[in-house]
Amino acid sequence: MDKNTVIGFVLIFALLGGYMYLNQPSKEQLAQQKRQQDSIALAQKFQQKNYQEPTSLENAVDKKMSNDSLKKAIAGGFGSGKSSNETVKELQNDVVKISLTSNGGRIKRIELKNYKTFAGKPLVLADEHTFSQGIQFYNRQNMLLNTNDFQFGDVDATTNSISFSTKNDSSGFIKQTYTLHPGSYLVDYDITFNGMDKIIPANNSIVALNVDATLMKQEQNRDNENQSTTIFYHYTNDDYDKLDEGKNDEAKPTTSIKWFCFKQRFFDVALISKDEFTDTKFSQKKSDSLQFLKSMSAMVMMPFNHSADQTFHLQWHIGPNKYNELKSYNIGLEKIVTLGVGIFKWVKWINKFFIIPVFNFLDGFHLSYGVIILIIVLIVRMILFPLNIKTFTSAAKMRILKPELDALREKFKDDTVKFGQEQMKLNSKAGVNPLGGCLPQLIQIPVLMAMYSFFPSSIELRQQSWLWATDLSNYDSIYNLGFSIPWYGNHISLFTLLMTITTYITIYLNRNQMNMSSDPNMKAMQWMQYVFPIMFLGLFNNSPAALSYYYLLQNITAIAQQLIINKFLIDEDKLRLQIEENKKRPAKKSGWQQRLDEAYKAREQQAKKDRR
Question: Is the same domain home to 331 and 373?
Fold first, then answer.
């Protein structure tokens, strides 16, 4: 190795050494990394199932500790556990009533004043048997403490605020404050840790908040309600996710979240952070009881900065899933209202920018919701009226051309390509567009799918009666069968039955257009038009009455519109003369027709070669 090579290696190692020295983390950075690693480890420790703590109840019993000493050990010096001398305070305004207990300083009962269950009973979202919340943290003795085991003896109550406090032997205290403002479903929830830096070890930089609930059945149709019941959670980057409504499910989001929500079909209990929740875990399990929907659990971590006084600013939302009201909070909570699902998720834009604004505008006139739905149907019909004129005009032209098309079909019955070519020539000469009637139907399908998502989610329709339907958000049963038919159900919904009957009437009125030939390729379409109403009968029978009512009105207005247009706006004699005049003019071939002609010529040439 020569001198230059040696010098080169020395310089390289010197540069690497200098780079590593200059870029090594400072003491503060090392401490921060250590805190982050400890936080991750602590979060995993919190989330471990069946974790056996060093000082557990079983160990205490084995050591034959006295009852008072046992309670003190479990509570970590924060006073005894749950007490028979419980203090219950009520926090209420004109829309919600919340009972708070000194046992854990937590929510004991939630009642919504302006709503009832389907049976007419007070609507209780949570009680002491179905709901609990608790703050968890480790102390310096490596004991996992839970505020549910603490007795919050100091209570401070004002008109719209209640505080519960509990002190530790080391003069530290925890205070939970609930504040409810008039007319609001939002409850400010502040958790203050004072002097807890002396109790929580320095390597523990988070505290956990557990919320568990077994959601109670509120609606008549438990299956429909369960299909809308799940846990939503919203990331700090404005995205959101949820657990699968149809199964037992759990999730451990890898990024911070802003809020989570136990969501039922029409109501929710959500917890919102003014900052963020770091590590989180959610789970849900279906309930076997007919009185309950799902058991849900949420564990969220909050950063603890080890200051002498720290307050976590949170907020509960406890109330109805009203889209506009949830949207007004400007935190994305309105996303829990389903406006489009699956492959039809895009119809949410129709709901957001058309259906909901029109619905809310009409609702401002305090009209019956049955009338509001009728007006929406008429608005849609008015918008589509010019297109519908073209639709029925096109259908009339097709009826006029039917004899000529049947003759062509008979002439070229063994050559479908040639028949298609001649059919296009005839339509082109006559100025007829066979697809001219498709556009209104294509426009109505997205609107119908938007309604299919909107009506089941609209709390405004809940327990609103119209005609014989006592609840537009539920099916309008007029007769219980006493047994269940697969796909159909155990009852007869009158709106759905009338919807099906009027659908067959529209098919009958359009029979000349749909059955214009004996073309085998059209047979499947002809049969499907009779099968679809039966499929819809089963699909809509268990759906909200408002949806079947909307579809029924669509059919009735379509029939009326067709009769009016055919009688007063379409003159078939004039159309026949117009078609004859069009035939005399030279027809310009479309690109599709030119390609069809070329394909036919190529096939003819190939056939001639084969015959040779």
Answer: no
Q: Are the C-beta atoms of residues 151 and 102 closer than 8 Å to each other?
A: yes
Neighbours of 494 (CB within 10 A): 19
d(CA 272, CA 69): 37
Same domain for 323 and 397, yes or no, is no
298 and 433 assigned to the same domain: no
Q: Percent of the chain, pLDDT > 90?
A: 49
512, part of any domain = no
Mean residue pLDDT across the chain: 82
Radius of gyration (C-alpha) of the chain in whole angstroms? 35
The kind and range of the H/E element at 215 are strand 206-216
- Say whether both 316 and 366 belong to one domain: no
User: DSSP class of residue 566?
Assistant: I
Please state the pTM of the whole predicted model.
0.79
Q: Would the pLDDT of 422 be above 60?
A: yes
Residue-level pLDDT at 64: 34
> C-alpha 514: how far from its chain's center?
38
What is the structure's pLDDT at 592? 54
Length of the chain: 612
| Same domain (yes/no): 215, 306 | yes
Amino acid at 389: I
Of the ranges 8-12, 25-29, 48-52, 147-151, the best mean pLDDT one: 147-151
What is the C-alpha separation between 48 and 57, in angstroms, rounded? 18
* Number of domains within the chain: 2
Same domain, yes or no, for 239 and 360? no
Give the model confidence (pLDDT) of 221-278 as tens digits. Answer: 898 999 999 999 999 988 999 999 999 999 999 899 999 999 999 999 999 999 999 8
Let me know if residue 101 belongs to a domain: yes
In terms of residue numbers, what domain contains 423?
356-481+543-593
Strand bridging mode 489-493 / 477-485: antiparallel
Contact indicator for 352, 335 with CB cutoff of 8 Å: no
Return the residue matching tokens 């040639």.
418
- Count CB atoms within 10 A of the CB of residue 489: 19
Establish how many alpha carbons lie within 13 A of residue 529's alpha carbon, considering only the half-sphere containing its beta carbon. 16
Decide if 99 is inside a domain.
Answer: yes
Q: Are residues 457 and 386 in the same domain?
A: yes
**Which string of b and e fits 420-454 if b means at least 16 CB within 10 Å?**
bbbbbbbbbbbebebebbeebeeebebbebbbbbb
397 in the same domain as 292:
no
Structure token pair of residue 408:
């062509």
Alpha carbon of 23 to those of 300, 478, 562: distances in Å? 35, 78, 80
- Whether residue 563 is predicted with pLDDT greater than 70 in this model: the reply is yes
DSSP letter string, 64-112:
T--HHHHHHHHHTTS--SS-SS--EEEEE-SSEEEEEETBTTEEEEEEE
CATH, residue 290:
2.70.98.90
384: amino acid identity, one letter: L
The per-residue pLDDT for 437 is 59
Residue 382 within a domain: yes
CA angle 408/509/401 to nearest 5° reads 20
Q: Are strands 309-320 and 267-277 parallel, antiparallel or unpaired?
A: antiparallel
With vertex at residue 219, the alpha carbon angle to CA 214 and CA 220, rounded to the nearest 5 degrees, is: 125
SS3 413: coil
